[in-house]
């Protein structure tokens, strides 16, 4: 308990909130590196997962990549990348974060696409939709909950791995913890840990909200009274189109 | 100075070191998963009996899972210090998220008529759980156990922060001394260890659930 009280003392010290090593700088670095990595991972994994899921191929790869990802220690990958010529660059961190964000997104996107009711797919084809239309208007909206689960898992993973990046001189809040260990300053270690834990919980809550907000089926259900249900579902589909176009 | 990624000389001269790290790694992993499993079993049974407790248990374990391992160990450090206990307690907390869910899924998948038949035959309480429900829940339990074990093997490396990370200690030392072979050797061993543990669990599952051999 003493450590906790000391940690609050650390928060109270104005010097810890200023400059290169200050909390705001480190927090911003952390958020930035997490956002960039998650964005890059989505940009790579979503199209691949959607395509593999749509054509129904590469299932073994898409599913096993998550199992392999779990078996590989994040710390090991960070250190291995650090010892390559990439070294001190911020790309060491981003590359490692992307590598660990890819598997959950890819696997969940693939599974989400495969679990779309085949009848819905057949109906869409029967209505004369082409492959791209089936993906955009039918499969993707129905797969959104699982896809978002994948993105959420990836976000949790990325926040955690970004903390570890401090060991290889990477940016972020982890630096507060590692420098605390370097100085054997338990107050600072615990204070840094509290900051990262709070950030992780905020990110998790944000992703949970996003997951709910992004689910077109759920939204349509919420809005539709029984009379307007058909129209609402149609507009939800249009909104999904819009969301894809704006990349949000 | 040469700094190769692979160095037979290192493996030969430092084999004692590597074996020590490996033994610590296995010890921490096994203790954590075993402890987590026992705790998860109790929590899952409790959660099944009291719906209100269920939400609390599942909610808490999800929150715990969100906390990065480095952070968890750092927070526990202020309680249990620079010991292997810090690592084990942290890892147990992580396994709970996966294991409680897996065991609950398994128990809830037991067909109601099977349970009724067993109750009709006089099974109740612990005996019903042990003889009827748990065996039928095994596929889900093993699936969760495999995920928990593999991720625990990987996460044990972070224990290096308190000096008890098994192979993670070697990776940390290799990082400090810029020694590539040490880092790569420990990393590869860690992945191999995870795969071996997974295979062992698959084998254990086949042995313990002979009635399912035809299914999977």
Automatic annotation (TrEMBL), chain A:
GO terms for biological process: glycine betaine transport; transmembrane transport. InterPro entries: ABC_transp_perm/SBD, MetI-like, MetI-like_sf. Keywords: Membrane, Transmembrane, Transmembrane helix, Transport. GO terms for cellular component: plasma membrane. It is found in: Cell membrane; Membrane. It holds the Pfam family BPD_transp_1. It is a multi-pass membrane protein. The keyword Transport applies. Its main location: membrane. Residues 27-207 form the ABC transmembrane type-1 domain. The chain crosses the membrane at residues 31-53, 74-102, 142-168, 189-210. Belongs to the binding-protein-dependent transport system permease family. PANTHER family: GLYCINE BETAINE/L-PROLINE TRANSPORT SYSTEM PERMEASE PROTEIN PROW (PTHR30177), POSSIBLE OSMOPROTECTANT (GLYCINE BETAINE_CARNITINE_CHOLINE_L-PROLINE) TRANSPORT INTEGRAL MEMBRANE PROTEIN ABC TRANSPORTER PROZ (PTHR30177:SF33). This is Osmoprotectant transport system permease protein. It comes from Haloactinopolyspora alba.
UniProtKB/TrEMBL annotation, chain B:
Pfam families: BPD_transp_1. Residues 22-201 form the ABC transmembrane type-1 domain. One of its GO terms (cellular component) is plasma membrane. It is a multi-pass membrane protein. CDD domains: TM_PBP2. SUPFAM superfamilies: MetI-like. It is found in: Cell membrane; Membrane. Gene3D superfamilies: MetI-like. The chain crosses the membrane at residues 26-46, 53-76, 82-104, 140-163, 183-204. InterPro entries: ABC_transp_perm/SBD (IPR051204), MetI-like (IPR000515), MetI-like_sf (IPR035906). GO terms for biological process: glycine betaine transport; transmembrane transport. Keywords: Membrane, Transmembrane, Transmembrane helix, Transport. Belongs to the binding-protein-dependent transport system permease family. PANTHER family: GLYCINE BETAINE/L-PROLINE TRANSPORT SYSTEM PERMEASE PROTEIN PROW (PTHR30177), OSMOPROTECTANT IMPORT PERMEASE PROTEIN OSMW (PTHR30177:SF4). This is Osmoprotectant transport system permease protein. It comes from Haloactinopolyspora alba.
């Amino acid at each position: 308990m003493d450590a906790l009280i000391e940690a609050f003392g650390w928060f109270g010290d104005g010097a810890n909130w200023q400059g290169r090593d200050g909390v705001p700088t480190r927090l911003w670095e952390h958020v930035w590196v997490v956002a960039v990595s998650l964005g890059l991972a989505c940009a790579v994994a979503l199209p691949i997962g959607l395509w593999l899921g749509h054509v129904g191929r590469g299932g073994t790869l898409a599913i096993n990549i998550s199992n392999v990802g779990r078996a590989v220690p994040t710390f090991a990958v960070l250190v291995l990348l650090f010892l390559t010529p990439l070294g001190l660059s911020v790309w060491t961190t981003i590359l490692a974060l992307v590598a660990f964000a890819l598997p959950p997104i890819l696997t969940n996107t693939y599974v989400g696409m495969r679990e779309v009711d085949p009848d819905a797919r057949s109906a869409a084809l029967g209505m004369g939709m082409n492959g791209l239309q089936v993906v955009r208007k039918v499969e993707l909206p129905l797969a959104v909950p699982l896809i978002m689960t994948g993105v959420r898992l990836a976000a949790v993973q990325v926040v955690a791995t970004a903390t570890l990046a401090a060991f290889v001189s990477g940016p972020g809040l982890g630096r507060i913890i590692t420098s605390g260990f370097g100085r054997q300053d338990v107050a600072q270690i615990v204070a840094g840990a509290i900051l990262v834990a709070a950030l992780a919980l905020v990110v998790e809550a944000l992703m949970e909200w996003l997951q709910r907000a992004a689910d077109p089926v759920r939204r349509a259900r919420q809005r539709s009274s029984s009379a307007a249900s058909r129209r609402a579902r149609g507009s939800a589909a249009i909104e999904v189109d819009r969301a894809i176009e704006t990349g949000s | 100075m040469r700094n190769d990624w692979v160095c037979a000389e290192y493996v030969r001269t430092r084999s004692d070191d590597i074996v020590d790290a490996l033994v610590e790694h296995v010890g921490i992993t096994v203790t954590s998963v075993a402890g987590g499993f026992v705790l998860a079993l109790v929590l899952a049974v409790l959660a099944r009996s009291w719906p209100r407790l269920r939400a609390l248990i599942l909610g808490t374990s999800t929150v715990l899972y969100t906390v990065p391992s480095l952070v968890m160990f750092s927070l526990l450090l202020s309680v249990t210090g620079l010991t292997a206990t810090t690592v084990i307690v942290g890892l147990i907390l992580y396994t709970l998220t996966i294991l409680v869910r897996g065991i609950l899924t398994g128990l809830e998948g037991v067909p109601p008529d099977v349970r009724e038949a067993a109750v009709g035959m006089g099974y109740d309480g612990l005996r019903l759980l042990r003889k009827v429900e748990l065996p039928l829940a095994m596929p889900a339990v093993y699936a969760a156990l495999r995920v928990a074990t593999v991720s625990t093997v990987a996460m044990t490396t972070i224990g290096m922060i308190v000096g008890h990370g098994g192979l993670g200690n070697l990776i940390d030392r290799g990082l400090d001394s810029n020694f590539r072979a040490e880092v790569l050797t420990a990393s590869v061993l860690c992945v191999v260890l995870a795969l071996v543990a997974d295979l062992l669990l698959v084998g254990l599952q086949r042995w313990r659930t002979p009635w399912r051999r035809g299914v999977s």
